[in-house]
Amino acid sequence: MALAKGLGGGFPIGALVGFGAAAQLLQPGQHGSTYGGNPLATAVAGAVLAEIEDAGLVANAALRGAELRAAIAGMASPLVAELSGRGLLIGVVLTRPVAKEIVAAAQERGLIVNAAAESRVRLAPPLIIGDAEVAEFTEKFAAALAAVAASTPTGATA
Amino acid sequence: MNASTFTTRFRAAMMPTVPSPLAMLSHGKGARVWDVEGTEYLDFLGGIAVNALGHAHPVFTRAVSAQAERLAHISNYFASEPELALAERLTRLTGGDAVYFTNSGTEAIEAAVKLARRTGRPRILSLTGSFHGRTMGALSLTGKPVLQDPFRPLLPGSSRSRRPSRRSRRRWPTTSPPSWSSRSRARPVSSTCRTATSPPREN
Fold first, then answer.
1. Domains parsed from chain B with CATH numbers
2. What does the alpha-carbon distance between residue B43 and residue B22 come to, in Å, rounded to a whole number?
3. CB-based contact, B42 to chain A, within 8 Å
4. What is the CATH number of domain A57-151?
5. Which one of B48, B67, B197 has the shortest CB-CB distance to A117?
6. In chain A, how long is the greatest CA-to-CA distance?
7. ipTM associated with this complex
8. Is B112 close to A93, i.e. CB distance below 8 A?
9. Residue B203 in contact with residue B49, Cβ under 8 Å?
């Protein structure tokens, strides 16, 4: 199992976890890293994971992810085809390849989202978000979707 | 600093691996970041799904500063308490048995590729449309021809399979990989699959 991304909460660190016999396949001298596992990176990752567990952030991700999905569905935008992902990693699958336009429209309104592909906007907010962030996202993302829907009529962006 | 200034500096000093940056950021707190001109943004990208605790979380900043004051780097000739404690935490959380630490996800995949080679089985399968990283071994598993084609030849033995349907799941056993393949790897949640038709911006 390969891990990285949120493991260090912003401090660069990754890990490979071996299961069963696979845990013993790499023998002394067969692989190595000067920096890998250094005290600074592992101390930070340990603190980040402890906070995720102690503060119940996995449960918060599930809760806020459901709220965001409901909010986006509630926008009833003609640009949104479906929602994918899990928890707070959300893919907004679009009916047209206007992800970059949506990202730009959102940024103009003070919201950073990401064009993972031409027809997909990716949301990956921190696991700590609460009511205020969900409400602000809802207002700004709805406005961005509306602006792009108004400026790119169906069929105009083939 | 205005937009044209940082864009000019970026183009002059940085290899052009990404388009012009969207903004020049200065600082953050929680789910918010500010650019160098003071504009505030709600950050729903989180450094591409990295900033689990948001920006400048006190747990993060305390951990960085406390460990930096004590012992930051020692090389892999030595062990440290934070290293062993994190390895133990990860085996507990994942149910795994042993951990190898890297500096990034793509390096974790590289380690997995070398580990897979040690099984003596030559093939490594990955999913069409998947993203596993940009270094040469990981890129060979990343199922996006647009990212791979400029860098062929890829790692010998690497090949792609379609996204698992009910039928192909039978061909992708999770408990006993086919003897020809060293292992099957599948990422259950992909944030970039399906609709990518141009090089996605990701790391």
1. 3-67 (3.90.1150.10), 105-184 (no CATH)
2. 13
3. yes
4. 3.90.1150.10
5. B197
6. 61
7. 0.95
8. no
9. no
